[in-house]
User: Which sequence fits this backbone?
């Protein structure tokens, strides 16, 4: 079998680049809404106020206990139950926020006060509809007979909703409707993208008009952000937005000079005589008589309507270099580079030089401008950059039986470098709670609901041996689960020596679930996971014999907070990102220690020097039978 | 009268056209002796076979890249009933091997050796026991193969190298025992066995010894098979990273090796892929072995492009004649060319060596694994895994069945102190077999260098002094005094005919790797009087057909009032001075899996074309534009170039070829200028690299 292909390398590069450049996927210049006060909002009613945190028992309907302070926006509707409006009005908008639902609660975010993205406690719901969390709510026509009044609601692709009382993250990329000078609508509003807890729920959905419950039946270029406040308790924090209210830039008066290029060195262009010259109607590499190797120098005028700092990404499949007003902003850059330029209002001379020496890939040339108030705007023709199509997806399908899939899994857990788990065992359950077990250290690395895995990266063409979870992934820790601890103030050992660990495989129980067995530090462990009702939780049961002074780390995170009464033995872990349920009368060790970030090389863990993170850990002595439940 | 004349002319033409075809139909074909039977795989099952083993009850067990183990019941399809596919195990990590040991199935996943057991008797595995888990870094190329079971019950598994990040072409061993073969006992004890492996997909136990095969790559001039003793080093230096560990049986260091052969690492901060240096004094592995005895040179080379491009399983014929006349010999699969080679092995001065022959081609996908059925037939598990193969199905399962007829073949070639002895499967026609002109012998070898692959080097045509036929006509002693130790000897018996039927050999060429020259008496033969020239190839040899020369000349341009364009060479890299400009520029690339990135290209008849062919694949390809309906023939001729293929860029001499590029290596490109055919029609562009021609094609529509 053969070696890595250069094509693959370029495809990866192209893939990574194209993902980064799509609207909403890069990092827009966000403005953070201060929640030290409520000044962002227009005359908030009494049901809206500030808090520092909220405590919620996930199984107690309506439970919602704000903690005094600031930083979190809470809605506790009672006699007063008004919606909340921003003081400012918005057009095109990227919006990112975290939210927390009370059990059974209902809210929503109305873009321009008119188009509602539903927020709901949809925890565990099997087939989410437009009225579930992340749905684009339906439109409404009173003239129609009953049963046909509602229309055009768009269900989320899947249920990515977490349990009430946990912080969830939503990202909305919205394009406002467009109007001509006479006020006639020329383009519908559009949801460019919605992500919930890292899962894409919608892409490129046109909104033909306001959804039910809009503040107004008309449509406008601008409108306020509105949060529904009349249905149930909800909390928000880390609200960030990027408002795109600037007119686009234009690139005109394009001329080009074409130079032959036979060497790898990129000579000073000034010293060369062009082979041909001409004009272009739009930015593209597609000039007549282009040889295999060349330098293309394109001049033009960038008309900037509003002064400001702009990010300009220049892309050349090969190398490119950008000059603005005769000033070189960066060196020749392989593939692509983004430069920052302070541009006054008015025309600017642009020179984009593109050099291509390698011949094994097709040319590509582009310029993307973005900035405060300007959503990434491509100035090149569609044909100037052609990206490869994604492969047809190959799913690891879930049927009526558990599905075990061993593969490489790329994880990006908190306080760890992004890395590849090389002996991962992924278990998909018909109840739709799935998890990754690391057969190199016994860690419960991650858990998720939804589809099981996308095995395209492993099974398409040669593949890279990896598969990806499908759904909202709860990332926990890839540190060894069981380790000796002699000093209770010392951090839990992050590395496992080779001879301290021996994985022995698994057998399947009657239902087809694996029971893992392994030896660690002299202990023999039998380890199984039982999915809970509706896929809302996973219960882990370890049977440990032998070994001395060993501890099991059940939870690790920025914080571990008891939820409800002490006898409930329920804890919210890692900034309220998941719940840990212990059996009654358990006495865990909860402690705070400083830990080094876990680094990885060649699939093998190592301790990163330098950074120490303050983490809280929940431990139990590792012996006998231990049961605990992860719920999210 | 005119009508009558036309009729006669027509008849003559018809006879001319049909006669040679009829004659060819009489020529024995592989299919006359070994039939391929396709076993239907139920829709929905992706049977990318990584391991195939026959169970005692006659069923087949097949492990797949998708991580399943299927039990195929009734694979013989007795009474024409369908086979039944039962899923025995699933969810494993790309299983590229399978073995049956005392009631249990053992399978290599990427990261461990696993024992599968059905403890409750429901026909499905419920115990997945990790016998031994080895490190992997997570690189895509870190495939693991095996196990094969040694005589003592211990198992061997092998692991591919990863590749560098900057130096993406260079095999590297990122974690212990990648690029190694490991020996693992059923109770989970692992012993590193040998290193030097790059892509050790093919394992086999022969004569109670471990054999392994590798294929062309960096440090690997060509594919081969070899015995692997404990502590051996077989050529790829990646695994030497771990040879300094106390448990390593390999005592060679990378430093010692690099002192002999420059690894040509890129200077810091650069990534410059080493390319073949023309006209250098080549370093060959056997030479380095003189200084570094840990090196194990191949037992038998399988010349790249001729006897395959990606060596897979090695399987001895244990059928004791049930599979035909080759009992005790080896069969070696090849994934890329969808075929199986045959190897006759012997031991000379205690060293394994022998001859390799083509055996059977035409499988549906890439041949990866073979297993003997209970009836002496051979099951062939196949996949092309995104690499592409001559058989263009993505996967498949076939059975190779002997028809009971004995093909006329060189059964064996044995080394003699002064040449070779060729043994045939049937008595030869003594006249042709004793004619020196019936034989051509060329010796050659490959370079040992960090470059991907190697040209054939130090090739030399050796003179045959005598061809002495045995009394029974079964053997011919070839006296070749100039045979060269450590070289491969291409032995062509092109003129030899069978006594019965006067047929040529089914496969006329064998490749003998002469590691040792046996001692013993030499025949007292004097050098023959120098002949005028080696005669042209006999007519019956379809592999040497130049009959195309007699075909009508290239169609003349239509008699239009246009100036006749200046004739172009078939490979013109510079725009002809009188063109001024081109009418059309074509950009053609490649995709992994033996594909061009465009399947149809349309041009105007007679237009001036600049055609750029970019090879963005990781293996070499060419672009050959041929006349309508001739792609099969041209591709076949390219294969028949054999050892000459490399130097000709696998472009044969053929009037059917209109234009072509050179062989374009990975990451390179070539631009040719051509004038589109004057006659509108559907032409073909094809890659004629051996194994690619049947699938890697596109249509050139001339309007």
Assistant:
């Amino acid at each position: 079998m053969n070696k890595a292909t250069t094509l693959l390398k370029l495809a990866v590069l192209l893939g990574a680049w194209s993902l980064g450049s799509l609207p909403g996927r890069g990092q827009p210049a966000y403005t953070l809404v201060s929640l030290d006060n409520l000044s962002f909002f227009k005359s908030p009613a009494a049901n809206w106020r500030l808090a520092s945190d909220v405590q919620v028992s996930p199984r107690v309907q309506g439970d919602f206990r704000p903690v005094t302070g600031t930083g979190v926006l809470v809605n506790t509707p009672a006699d007063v139950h008004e919606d909340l409006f921003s003081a400012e009005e918005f057009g095109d908008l990227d919006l990112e926020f975290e939210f927390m639902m009370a059990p059974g609660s209902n809210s929503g975010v109305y873009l321009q006060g008119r188009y509602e993205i539903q927020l709901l406690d949809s925890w565990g719901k099997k087939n989410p509809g437009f009225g579930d969390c992340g749905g684009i709510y339906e439109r409404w026509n009173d003239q129609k007979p009953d049963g046909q009044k509602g229309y055009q609601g768009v269900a989320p692709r899947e249920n990515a909703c977490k349990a009430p009382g946990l912080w969830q993250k939503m990202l909305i990329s919205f394009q406002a409707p467009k109007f001509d000078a006479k006020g006639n609508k020329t383009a519908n509003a559009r949801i460019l993208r919605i992500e919930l807890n890292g899962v894409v729920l919608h892409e490129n959905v046109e909104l033909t008009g306001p959804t039910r419950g809009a503040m107004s039946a008309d449509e406008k270029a601008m409108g306020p952000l509105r949060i529904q406040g009349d249905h149930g308790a909800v909390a928000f924090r880390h609200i960030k937005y990027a408002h795109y209210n600037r007119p686009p830039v234009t690139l005109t008066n394009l001329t080009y000079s074409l130079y032959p290029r036979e060497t790898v060195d990129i000579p000073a262009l000034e010293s060369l005589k062009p082979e041909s010259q001409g004009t272009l109607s739009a930015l593209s590499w597609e000039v007549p008589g282009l040889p295999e190797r060349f330098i293309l120098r394109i001049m033009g005028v960038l008309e900037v309507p509003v002064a400001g700092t702009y990010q300009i990404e220049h892309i050349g499949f090969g190398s490119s270099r950008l000059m603005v007003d005769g000033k070189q902003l960066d060196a020749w850059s392989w593939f692509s580079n983004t430069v920052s330029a302070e541009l006054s209002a008015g025309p600017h001379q642009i020179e984009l030089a593109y050099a291509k020496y390698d011949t094994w890939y097709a040319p590509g040339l582009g310029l993307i401008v973005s900035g405060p108030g300007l959503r990434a705007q491509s100035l090149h023709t569609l044909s100037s950059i052609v990206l490869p199509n994604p492969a047809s997806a190959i799913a690891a399908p879930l049927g009526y039986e558990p599905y075990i899939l061993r593969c490489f899994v790329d994880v990006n857990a908190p306080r760890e470098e992004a890395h590849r788990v090389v002996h991962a065992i992924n278990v998909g359950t018909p109840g739709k709670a799935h998890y990754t077990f690391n057969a190199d250290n016994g860690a419960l690395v991650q858990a998720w609901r939804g589809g099981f895995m996308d095995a395209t990266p492993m099974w398409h063409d040669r593949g890279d041996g990896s598969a990806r979870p499908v759904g909202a992934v709860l990332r926990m820790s890839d540190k060894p689960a069981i380790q000796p601890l002699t000093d209770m103030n010392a951090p839990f050992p992050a590395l496992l020596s080779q001879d301290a660990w021996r994985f022995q495989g698994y057998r399947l129980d009657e239902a087809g679930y694996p029971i893992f067995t392994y030896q660690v530090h002299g202990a023999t462990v039998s380890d199984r996971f039982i999915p809970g009702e509706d896929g809302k939780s996973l219960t882990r049961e370890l049977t440990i014999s032998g070994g001395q002074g060993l501890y099991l780390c059940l939870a690790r995170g920025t914080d571990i907070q008891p939820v409800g009464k002490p006898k409930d033995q329920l804890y919210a872990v890692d900034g309220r990102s998941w719940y840990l349920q212990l059996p009654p009368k358990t006495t865990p060790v909860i402690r705070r220690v400083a830990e080094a970030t876990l680094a990885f090389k060649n699939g093998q863990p190592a301790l990163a020097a330098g950074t120490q993170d303050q983490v809280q850990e929940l431990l139990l002595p590792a012996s006998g039978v231990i049961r605990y439940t992860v719920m999210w | 009268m005119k009508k009558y004349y036309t009729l006669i002319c027509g008849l003559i033409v018809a006879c001319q056209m049909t006669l040679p075809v009829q004659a060819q139909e009489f020529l024995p074909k592989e299919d006359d002796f070994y039939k391929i039977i396709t076993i239907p795989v139920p829709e929905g099952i992706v049977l990318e076979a990584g391991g195939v083993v026959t169970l005692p009850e006659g069923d087949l067990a097949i492990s797949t890249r998708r991580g399943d183990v299927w039990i195929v019941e009734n694979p013989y399809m007795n009474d024409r009933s369908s086979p039944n596919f039962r899923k025995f195990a699933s969810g494993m990590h790309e299983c590229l091997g399978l073995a049956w040991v005392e009631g249990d199935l053992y399978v290599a996943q990427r990261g461990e050796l696993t024992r599968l057991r059905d403890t409750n008797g429901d026909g499905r595995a419920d115990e997945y026991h990790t016998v031994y888990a080895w490190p992997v870094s997570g690189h895509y190329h870190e495939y693991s193969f095996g196990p094969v079971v040694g005589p003592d019950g211990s198992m061997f598994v092998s692991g591919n190298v990863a590749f560098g990040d900057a130096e993406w072409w260079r095999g590297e061993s990122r974690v212990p025992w990648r690029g190694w073969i490991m020996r693992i006992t059923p109770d989970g004890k692992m012993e590193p066995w040998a290193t030097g492996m790059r892509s050790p997909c093919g394992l086999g136990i022969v004569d109670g010894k471990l054999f392994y095969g590798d294929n062309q790559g960096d440090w690997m001039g060509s594919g081969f098979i070899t015995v692997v003793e404990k502590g051996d080093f077989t050529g790829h230096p990646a695994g030497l990273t771990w040879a300094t560990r106390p448990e390593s049986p390999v005592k060679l260091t990378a430093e010692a090796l690099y002192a002999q052969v420059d690894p040509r690492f890129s200077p810091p901060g650069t990534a410059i892929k080493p390319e073949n240096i023309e006209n250098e004094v080549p370093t060959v592995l056997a030479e380095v072995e003189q200084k570094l005895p840990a090196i194990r040179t191949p037992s038998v080379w399988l010349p790249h492009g001729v006897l395959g491009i990606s060596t897979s399983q090695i399987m001895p014929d244990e059928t004791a004649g049930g599979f035909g006349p080759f009992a005790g010999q080896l069969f070696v699969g090849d994934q890329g060319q969808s075929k199986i080679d045959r190897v006759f092995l012997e031991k000379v001065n205690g060293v394994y060596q022998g001859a390799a022959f083509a055996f059977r081609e035409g499988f549906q996908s890439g041949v990866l694994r073979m297993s003997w059925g209970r009836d002496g037939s051979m099951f062939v598990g196949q996949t092309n895994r995104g690499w592409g193969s001559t058989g263009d199905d993505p996967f498949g399962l076939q059975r190779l069945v002997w028809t009971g007829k004995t093909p006329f073949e060189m059964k064996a070639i044995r080394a003699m102190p002064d040449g070779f002895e060729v043994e045939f499967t049937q008595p030869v026609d003594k006249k042709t077999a004793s004619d020196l002109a019936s034989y051509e012998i060329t010796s050659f070898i490959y370079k040992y260098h960090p470059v991907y692959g190697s040209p054939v080097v130090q090739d030399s045509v050796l003179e045959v002094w005598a061809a002495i036929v045995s009394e029974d006509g079964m053997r011919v002693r070839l006296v070749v005094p100039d045979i060269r130790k450590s070289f491969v000897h291409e032995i062509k018996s092109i003129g030899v005919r069978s006594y019965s039927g006067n047929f040529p050999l089914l496969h006329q060429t064998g490749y003998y790797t002469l590691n040792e020259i046996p001692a013993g008496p030499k025949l007292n033969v004097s050098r023959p009087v120098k002949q005028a020239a080696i005669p042209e190839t006999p007519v019956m040899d379809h592999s040497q057909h130049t009959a195309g020369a007699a075909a009508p000349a290239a169609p003349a341009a239509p008699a239009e009032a246009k100036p006749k364009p200046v004739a172009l060479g078939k490979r013109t890299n510079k725009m002809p001075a009188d063109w001024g400009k081109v009418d059309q520029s074509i950009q053609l690339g490649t995709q992994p899996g033996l594909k061009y990135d465009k399947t149809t290209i349309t041009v105007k008849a007679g237009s001036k074309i600049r055609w750029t062919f970019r090879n963005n694949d990781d293996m070499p390809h060419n672009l050959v534009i041929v006349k309508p309906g001739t792609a099969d023939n041209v591709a076949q001729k390219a294969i028949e170039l054999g050892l000459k293929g490399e130097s000709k860029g696998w472009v044969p001499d053929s009037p059917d070829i209109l234009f072509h590029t050179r062989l374009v290596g990975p990451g390179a490109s070539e631009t040719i200028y051509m004038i589109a055919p004057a006659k509108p029609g559907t032409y073909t562009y094809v890659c004629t690299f051996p194994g690619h021609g049947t699938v890697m094609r596109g249509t050139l529509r001339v309007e």
Summary: The first strand of chain B starts at residue 34 and ends at 38. Chain B touches chain A through 67 residues (CB under 8 Å). Helices of chain B lie at 2-26, 30-33, 254-260, 285-291, 430-433, 631-640. Confidence is low (pLDDT under 50) at residues 1-25, 533-563 of chain B.
